[in-house]
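>> received
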Amino acid sequence: MMNERAFNDHHKIEFPPMHTAEHILNQTMVQMFGCSRSKNAHIERKKSKLDYELKQEPTKEQVAEIERRVNEVIDRHLPVTYEFVPLQDAAKIVDLSKLPEGTEAPLRLVRIGNYDVCACIGQHVGNTSEIGHFIILNHDFKEGCWRMRFRLE
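>> returned
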């Protein structure tokens, strides 16, 4: 099997804890709001930014609940695992609509325990215990786009 660095050479090297937290946040948003995973993501070591297409701005209580749920998943110390699957099999498991045209199989699926699975070439931690505490720094809502920024402690 390829090492993670070689697999990801054509792409920016992500900070594994932040990138894994993005996966957890995406699944939390899907569960809470029935939306798609983030439409845009800017993942960095110190802070990150994600955009979600929503019908209305989350309330203060919902924002607090997002943060609580993400930290609850992190605190479960879930394993983060990979599997390589044929493209047609991956399509039965995950949304492939964001894959670049011409993507070839096999696809790498990243699983965070039984909480999340998605196709991804990025770097991740081996266990959610390595992520740290998730904090939403700020957020805004404009024309159906909820942009939020977060960091890890």
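>> Residues 12-152 form a domain with the Threonyl-tRNA Synthetase; Chain A, domain 2 fold (CATH 3.30.980.10).
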